[in-house]
Amino acid sequence: METNYFIVSLVLLPLLTFIISVFIAEKQEFAIANISYYGVLFHLLTVTFFIGFWLYRGAPYINVKEITIYDSPDYTFLIDFCFDHITAFYLWIGSFISLLIVRYCSYYLHMEGGYKRFFNTVLFFFTAYNATILAGNFETLFIGWEMLGISSFLLISFYRERYLPVRNALKVFSIYRIGDVGILLAAWASHHLWHENITFFKLNNYHLVHEHLLAHSGIGVFISVALLVAAAAKSAQFPFSSWLPRAMEGPTPSSAIFYGSLSVHLGVYLMLRMEHFWEHQPLVRLLIGTTGLVTAVVGYFVARVQSNIKTQIAYASITQIGLMFIELALGWNTLVLIHFAGNAFLRTYQLLVSPSMVSYLIRDQFYHYVPHRFRFYKGISHKLQNTLYLLSLKEWNLDKLINNLLFKPIRKLGHQLDFLTPGNVLLYVVPSYLLALLFLWQREWIPDLLRPSVPALVAFVGLVMVFKAFSERKYPRLAWGLVVLNHFWTALAVSFNEAFDIMHTAFYLSGVVVSGLIGLVCLQILKRQEPDYFDLEEYYGHVYEYKTLGFVFFLATLGMMGFPITLTFIGEDLLLSHVHEDQYFLAFFIALGFVVDCVALLRLYARLFMGIHAKRYHATPLRSA
């Protein structure tokens, strides 16, 4: 029992430190730094003591079923924690590096605007990291995973008065959300494979897992590939590698802790945690190894030609993580953990000293610069070398590839619905929803041939609504309303499935309605106060004059996104649990809708409240800054 208290405290300690830091006045830098430092130090000491105690007891696998959030006859949402050698390794390294970063930041960011905001965000990230590492089931893992995504957005956009940090924060968050599709689909499929809220403790049972996979090899491959997509997106593996250099727009310490050492290695952690699930699937092993190999090759060449030191370190880190994926595929798990520790400490050191190194190199170049003698070669080998050089300079066009394959089609489809003005939504979409409700109550009116495809069709209509919200440029309230409509269409789609509890729909939509109304009120107030700066064409930076309004709207945005642990978050998992195991299209449409609406909502918040302020009497950085 005492071990349970220790494990739970490893999440509660950083959470308590974060809460205390929120209530400290912004001008009290000394108090903020000390609370953060001693909070993380106490966490490190607790982790170290517990690991020693755990090793003394023989290093058993510990599972803690802590809190049941929601319970019904066919579904249980519970918070579950686990502790094993992977957890111990990641926890200690994460706590030690966080302590170094917090200490470094207390001096590095002295007198910087947003000092308190930075420490609040770092402590929030530290809480999310511990929740992710200690997670004992998919639901708890996704709580930490979502918190990491939000903290990532806030850290990259720390310099929110500039254009590029905000833009790149949205881009990185969008890639993160692609990985969330994999987590959601894996959680949905696992519910049907095990017919319960499976814990990672049970997945360590080789005979149980092997027996299930023999009977359901197809769904086993599906879950493994979904997890690989999530891991590749989180760890910037091919083809998602281009987001990591863009994430370096934040302060150097946040780049070190987030994208150099800890968060970027969570894809490796995910594959290690689920190793017993995919280790006997040769196809999945091949995919993992191939992903790592391609990433290592591409990252090596790109890192060699970079003129920006942060970008060079980012691609060097990507290359090493690619090698870790190869080691995972080969089953060298102990080497993966050692490799993770070495890469995390090295990248932290490199990023923290990078400002000094740039200064030294500039000085050295000034006094000892020797022009390179240009020679022209015509051989095949040199043509290949030049081709690789140009490709690497363009980062193998990975950014363009992701944009053309994922985001451009969404925007294009959304622009096809530009006729959906606020008036036309009331004229066409709302009556269509009422008609679909009528068919739900009178299901016998639906032909038997069409009945199986109705849920997927209704979910697709909701997905189209959120595509339009993603591409909307003119009406902020329309974009917000379309996201609300997507949630209603999604709930309706699942309601067409048999044996669905209507109370689950009410539970889910209650969170949507409350957050949606708060958001609409905030938008109405902003529209009344700033009628000339109220569209989605530019970044207007209204947070400088409307801090409280911006904060309330941000909370409403989190509620609409299903941020843990809101009613919407639990409701999303509830809805997915009622999607049948053969309804792949329905599950995909719902998961994709949940992901894209988060991107659309944060884009709406960023364009209205972040970026360069539209009014001339505020300081205005260059657009390239």
Question: What's this entry about, in short?
Answer:
The chain is mostly helical and 625 residues long.
Polypeptide structure, described:
The chain is mainly alpha-helical. The chain folds into two domains: 2-363, no CATH class; 416-609, no CATH class. It is built from 25 helices and two strands. Strands 1-2 form a two-stranded antiparallel ribbon. A hairpin with a 2-residue loop joins β1 (62-72) and β2. The mean pLDDT is 83.
Write the layout of secondary structure elements.
Blueprint lengths: L1 H21 L6 H28 L5 E11 L2 E9 L1 H24 L6 H20 L3 H19 L6 H32 L5 H4 L2 H10 L1 H18 L8 H4 L5 H10 L4 H8 L1 H4 L3 H23 L4 H22 L2 H36 L11 H14 L4 H18 L6 H20 L12 H18 L4 H20 L6 H28 L17 H15 L5 H11 L6 H26 L16
Antiparallel strand pairs: 1-2
Helix pairs in contact: 1-2, 1-4, 2-3, 2-4, 3-4, 3-11, 3-16, 4-5, 5-6, 6-9, 6-25, 8-9, 9-12, 9-14, 11-16, 14-15, 14-17, 15-16, 18-20, 19-21, 20-21, 20-25, 21-22, 21-25, 22-23, 22-24, 23-25
Number of strands: 2
In quaternary terms, these chains amount to: single chain
- Radius of gyration from the CA trace? 25 Å
Helix content bin: over 70%
Distance between the termini: 53 Å
Low-confidence parts: none
Question: Main β-sheet, in a few words?
Answer: 2 strands, antiparallel
The secondary-structure class comes to mainly alpha
